Amino acid sequence: MATQRIIDFLATRRPDGPCLVVDLDVVADNFRAFERALPDSRIYYAIKANPAPEILRMLAKMGSSFDAASVAEVEMAMNAGAPASRISFGNTIKKERDIARAYQLGVRLFAVDCVEEVEKIARVAAGSRVFCRVLTDGAGAEWPLSRKFGCVPVMAVDVLRRAHALGLEAYGVSFHVGSQQTDLAAWDRALGDARQVFAALAEEGIVLRMVNLGGGFPTRYLRDVPAAEAYGQAIFDALRKHFGNAIPETIIEPGRGMVGNAGVIKSEVVLISKKADNDNVRWVFLDIGKFGGLAETMDEAIRYPLVTRHDGDATAPCVLAGPTCDSADVLYEKTPYPLPLSLTIGDEVLIEGTGAYTTTYSAVAFNGFEPLRSYVI
Predict the structure, then answer these.
(1) Are 149 and 92 in contact (CB under 8 A)?
(2) Which Pfam family, just one, is annotated for this protein (predicted)?
């Protein structure tokens, strides 16, 4: 949300055009909240959420580990001061030469979800640890991540058995309950599946050691979400329920929950219009849209809080859209957004909760608009 530091920065710097401003103090507070909530879990920050070097350097100094989706992200984490021993190559879809490069850099922890990926790792990253991602239903998430990644628990047993046979360390199981997950029971369901995999392999003498609890920890947009402590307690209770006293090592991969509420986008109203004289719904066009970094408004999944200088005035529903010559560049139409009737062209609009997945989703010069500028303070 817009901290006083962000407000002061915008007031003194007056940056031109849309931009993201991230308050590092908020990121640090979020990291400490995760440490308190899950003191026995190692934190692997999901770099893809916001790879700003200032964020990575601060988290590395605070002791964070890192979840990388590519070799480039592995190198970003290392350049920020993280040793390779604190980096996981968490993408289940990797080129063999990228696995080899990460291995050359010292990475020894890799995600898989099929036998074919295990075989790649065995060829070029001998002796590495692998964890297999299992499918979850994503129920309760505003941005579900099911189907593309993971396999059913029965197949995960086959995948990890194959890893063991090829000389890799069958290290554990991972899952992702869906981004912006607000159902505290989601981890309970996923941990039940993980326990099945642990038990099946234990019968064969293959002892798994780790559960990667993934991400999914939310940030607050328009609706309140449970605090980190509530997630921590729910996860601990589920671990005890499914694993008893033999609780495995655990890691978490917060991305949105680490940086989402630390960032605010400053935007400007470019146009306010109607499509007919008797239309009751105004169209409000901002200088930023789906292609400028707000891709998560797709299907209106993420509804960002908007702040204007007219807040408190009478409101009416609006369609909110971006500035590009693309008909898909509409943010909210199915559920119009209530905005002040006094809002006018040229007004500044702050889009809160935008610290995650905005700069990385911003297109490179689509329609000639520059990528979203970012300031980390």
Answers:
(1) yes
(2) Orn_Arg_deC_N
